[in-house]
Design a protein that fits this description.
Blueprint: E1 8-17, E2 19-26, E3 33-37, H1 40-53, H2 71-80, H3 87-101, H4 104-112, E4 119-124, H5 145-148, E5 149-153, H6 170-173, E6 178-182, H7 206-228, H8 245-253, E7 258-262, E8 265-266, E9 276-277, E10 299-302, E11 309-313, E12 316-317, H9 318-323, H10 331-336, H11 345-348, E13 354-358, H12 374-380, E14 385-389, H13 396-402, H14 411-424, H15 428-446, H16 453-456, E15 459-463
Parallel strand pairs: 1-4, 4-5, 6-7, 7-13, 13-14
Antiparallel strand pairs: 1-2, 2-3, 8-9, 9-12, 10-11, 14-15
Length: about 475
């Protein structure tokens, strides 16, 4: 069942200027902007509570070195003792955040308009509010924003200034195949920092399950395409394959409806453009056939007692997706993409109408004062809709190890497949909203951590349709 068409639309904008300011404008009737300064002490307390609830490594108190949690310790804390581990703790955090982020008059306005799906809220958060799960905010004692509204993100208005490639309407491309990159194999030089999503014996067969759900639909898409007389070739669908940036460029350039990436994202804090996906790219001697070129810092690793780097892994970053090969004069790099000269990113990796990046904090764009990361790069290169995550996601294995989930429980895989299903339909935002409402109901009724908002409230969808004129 799809969410009903909204009766009203609300624009919410936040800005950090010493303190944090929130503005909101209802677009029905005569638009009037309201601006409030958020109470800094209340906001600091609420955001600190949110940070403690997330599976990001935290500073460890009481240690001689003042160390930081391991990734495993952070996942264990988030799943067993932090706010998102129980409905009561999560409800308390949702109320704390709502009172810190939503001014009283805005909460009252939302409550007064609050029938399910009657309001669409379009948010552009500030860096300080980038990880706030707006859908969970308590409107009153019984209702969350998710219960009464459809929430999406808006990119900064600067995205539309000289946008490199306008989105193609979904109806014109929906018959084309999708490009899936699922848990790509990482080069050896990346494995000291990242591991594949599916590595344990209990995960054997899950890739076959994903493949069985995706590939039959791809065959249907090929039949539809043949019926339409399209000459487009089917895009590749690699599952734990050695996918490189050159192979990805070839798949996207053949023409596709969607790009779905499920793997790892990394970023350098407060460094716009550094957010990157991880494929099987490595650097090497100039001109070497398997040597990749790009703008990210290579991940070098040295043997014990040696300073000689080996197998330097090269992430594929947002700056690559924007600038392509414009920063190199090496014709051998250009030739790898079938070009005689340098190209911009949207020429090498043209993005389809819909993009999903299901990985750890793929939506890091909004955490920087200069909003630029994988979301903005995809939108600039032709995407209309990008779904990704606000924070680190626990793996299926973490749910089994720390939350006593049964062997067949795969909450993170289920989330990824749900996004893939939604992106295939007519209205991905409505489909994901309906699913999240169902997850919230199950969470309230059962308290099973497999339904915890720690997972599904991480999702964000940013919309940037083509503008006319």
């Amino acid at each position: 069942m799809s969410a009903p068409a909204p009766d009203s639309e609300l624009l919410v904008r936040a800005a950090d200027a010493g303190d944090t300011y929130l503005s909101w404008t209802w677009l029905d009737g005569t638009p009037t902007a309201h601006v409030r300064r958020l109470d800094p002490q209340r906001l600091d307390i609420a955001l600190a509570g949110l940070r403690r609830a997330l599976p990001h490594p935290q500073q460890v108190d009481g240690t001689e070195s003042g160390g930081v949690e391991s990734d495993r310790a952070a996942a264990r804390r988030a799943l067993t003792s932090a706010a998102f581990a129980s409905p009561s703790g999560e409800a308390e955090l949702a109320s704390l955040l709502a009172h810190a982020v939503l001014p009283p008059e805005l909460r009252a306005e939302l409550a007064a308009r609050g029938t399910a799906g009657s309001t669409r809220i379009r948010i552009t958060p500030s860096p300080r509010l980038a990880q706030v799960p707006w859908e969970l905010l308590a409107v009153d004692d019984d209702r969350r924003l998710l219960d009464i509204a459809v929430v999406t993100h808006d990119p900064p208005a600067t995205l539309y200034v000289a946008r490199s490639r306008s989105p193609v309407p979904w109806e014109r491309v929906r018959h084309l195949p999708a490009v899936h990159v699922i848990d790509p194999i990482l080069p050896a030089s990346a494995r000291h920092r990242l591991a594949n999503v599916y590595t344990e014996a209990a995960d054997l067969g899950v890739l076959d399950e994903i493949r069985s759900r995706v590939q039959p639909r791809d065959r249907t898409a090929r039949r539809d395409r043949a019926a339409r007389g399209s000459g487009q070739r089917a895009a590749l669908t690699p599952f734990q394959g050695e996918v490189t940036r050159v192979q990805l460029a070839a798949a996207l350039s053949r023409g596709c409806s969607r790009f779905f990436y499920f793997g790892h994202v990394s970023a350098v804090p407060n460094e716009p453009g550094s957010a990157a996906i991880h494929l099987n790219d490595v650097t090497g001697p100039a001109g070497a056939e398997d040597s990749a070129w790009g703008m990210a810092a290579a991940w070098t690793r040295t043997e014990a007692g040696s300073t000689t780097p080996y197998g330097a892994h090269l992430p594929l970053c947002a700056l690559d997706f924007l600038l392509g090969t414009k920063q190199t004069e090496d014709p051998r790099v250009w030739a790898r993409y079938g070009a005689n000269g340098s190209q911009y990113g949207h020429e090498i990796w043209p993005m389809p109408t819909r993009v999903a990046i299901i990985a750890c904090e793929g939506g890091v764009d909004f955490r920087s004062a200069e909003t630029f990361g994988l979301i903005m790069a995809a939108l600039d290169a032709g995407a209309e809709l990008v779904t990704t995550t606000r924070w680190v996601l626990p793996t299926d294995a973490a749910f089994r190890a720390y939350a006593a989930a049964p062997a067949g429980t795969r909450p993170t895989t289920r989330l990824a497949l749900q996004v893939d299903d939604a992106h295939r339909g007519a209205d991905p935002v409505a489909a994901l909203t309906d699913w999240q409402r169902g997850q919230l109901r199950a969470w309230r009724e059962t308290g099973d951590v497999a339904y915890s908002p720690l997972l599904w409230a991480a999702l964000t969808t940013t919309l940037a349709p083509a503008r006319r004129g």
